[in-house]
Known about the structure:
- By secondary structure, the protein is of the alpha+beta class.
- It is built from 14 helices and five strands.
- The protein folds into five domains: 101 residues, Tetrapyrrole methylase, C-terminal domain (Methyltransferase, Cobalt-precorrin-4 Transmethylase, Domain 2, 2-Layer Sandwich); 89 residues, Helix Hairpins (Orthogonal Bundle), CATH 1.10.287; 30 residues, no CATH class; 65 residues, Helix Hairpins (Orthogonal Bundle); 49 residues.
- A hairpin with a 5-residue loop joins β3 and β4.
- α3 crosses α6, α5 runs antiparallel to α6 and α13 crosses α14.
Amino acid sequence: MSGITQLESVFSALGLETFSSLTLLDADALRDAHVPPFPPDMPALIVGVDAQVFPGVKRALAAVYPDGHPMRVVHADGTVTDADVGLLGQNGQMPAPVALYLPPLEEGASFEAFQEIVAHLRAPDGCPWDRKQTHQTLRPHLLEEAYEALSAMDADDSQAMAEEFGDLLLQIVLNAQIASESGNFAMSDVIKGIHDKIVRRHPHVFGTVHVDGVGEVLQNWEQLKEAERDANGETEKGLLDGVPLSFPALNQSQEYQDRAARVGFDWPEIEGVLDKIAEEIEEVRQAENGEELAAELGDLFFALVNLARWKGVDAESALRGTNARFKKRFAHIEQSARRQGRHLSDLTLDEMEALWQEAKRTEKK
């Protein structure tokens, strides 16, 4: 009864009489939280804030709400003061106990609101194009959006990343909505599945297992996955079978080698990797026909990917970066030829090489 009385006094102090929605949360639920466990586009009332839970409350709110987001603080004596998330407890002091009232962020700022938008697209009164889509028709769009997200990451463009991650999220939610309509699975199943998998595969974070460094984390990861395969009756499934065949070849190669290394199948020192590259280069030289040459070049690529892995370099990203630099430098040659009123084919190799070096020097400025 005292809790109800406390809520009544808080509601009265805030002047809250009618509202269509409100998240009511005990502050203790935020004690160890890193993000708020409620949709931020709904108003929220957090009660029972004291000195012990306050650091967790501030941390969780700051992860989602901007510093200037307004809020109202209800103090123990029933007085109410206005504040914002950035100023919350800035002086290290917060009278306790208190209640915090947060107005909602702008409409559409929650995952739940996004799910509703996507479901509406698929509804009878939704979009004809979206209603026609299937998992298979969306496949190329998912791949395209993934590559566009990678391009934004390669460019280290934060604004582009935010946009492309949204486009990628749309593909995931749209596919989950299609599955939900057919009764196969719902978005809650997707989220619950990955939630449980993360907890299960991180016993050193969510359990009592101790690991010493990244190497042991990866070894333990493979042991857990092996146990999962056994539990699922997939005893014939190999360590490398989980790597998608649709992966780009460099990604696939590096993932194969990563997984094999986790169980000890690896060179003991990097000198073995370098010797293998030299050996493969010699075998490329000695190839006697096209079939042998293709095989030996494949082995050389594989060995070079292994060197990238040893050096902590993502081979696919490295080659994409080189491709981007080549395109930019070659465009400089083309532009220079046009400025001279010449065709690209009119330039000599020496002239093109000089312009290439000019483009490289420009990059360093």
